[in-house]
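Model it.
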Amino acid sequence: MESDTSSSNAPRVGILCIGNEVVDGRILNSNASWIAQELIHAGFLPQLVTTCRDDLSEITEVLTFLSKHVEFLITSGGLGPTTDDLTRQAISHFFDRPLVLSEEELGKLKNFYRKRGRKFDNANNIQAHFPENARVIPNPNGTAPGFIVSRDDTFSICSLPGVPRELHAMITETVLPFFLEQAGSRVCIPSFQELQLFGIPESEAGKRIDRLPLPNEIRVGYRPHFPELQVRVESPNGGEEPLKQAVTLIREELDEYVFSMQAETSLPQVVHELLSAHDTTLAVAESCTSGLLGKLLTDYSGASAYFSGGILSYSNELKEKLLGVPNELIQTHVAVSPQVARAMATGTRERCGSSIGVSITGVAGPNGGTTDKPVGLFYIGIASQGYEVALEFFLPTDRDYVRIYSAFSALDSIRRFLLGLPFLGKTVELP
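Modeled.
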């Protein structure tokens, strides 16, 4: 759930993504979500977002509809050299302006191919044609330039290729500056702060934040990105003081779940930074996650400074042979138990010679669950010099989600252990 910006006086922008592959779901429409977020951050309101097929009449009909509701429109896709790339023709028809060859852009296009040792096909000439009086948008990462066409300063279309890497650069370098120039003082760039959380559902976070006495102008939006949750606190009018007050209240309310105050910062990245800052080493023992925790711990450069290694002890036999888990412990308590989780953590710490040992054992499913050990139950063990603990977690969902949540719960447990915070999972008291 995102914050409501419908009452904003921000200039309204439409987004049209063109392509059969987008409409029928062969590719995810990531361009629309990325563009919308960039517009919001720049002080504009994404008013309408739609898609249509590579069909001349359909594109023209959608352009006609959108032009009645927004003052700016961004299109993506359909600027290539093939017969199904019809966006420039549709825009030309919509504005009733002929397509005109730009000799300058044609020269750039040929030079692009020559530098890369590629043969230039005359079919590519279409990429150097633009509606009459259009402004060309340079494409630093590809062959197809974009273009801007305006009508009486009341409606403008910015047409861009659909390749994300190309589109992103063109939005940032040309389109947004053009919008800001045209909209002038009507644009008010919002102030915002994003909090990254783990271990609390969106509904619970929303309930607790709703009880807080936040300043009236503050808007709060939630974006779950399993297994993390992003909370965006926004002051639409750019007020820094109300934003600061709101963030302070929310941070105090949800402090133990907040692992970062930086946008797009993941839990694995935060744990990497924490371990890098501590004079400690860590080893893992994984059963149901089978290497996922080790991967997350080593995704960032410099992990070798703290990560000793890991043991994938999927079978009970390897738990005994590689980790030294006593057979009688497994026979008495079974492999998915707090006792075995603790023994696995101690075993990997001792055998890998690390300061900290962390283990995961659980029932990921879809088979193997019992009444006492249902699918979604898992245990995390943590062991250091003179300290051992086992934590119980339960997430009754499918196999992939259980494995991902187990690995992230282990990361969060490491974070909490290093920071002296209470653990998220239920601490199991063991003799």
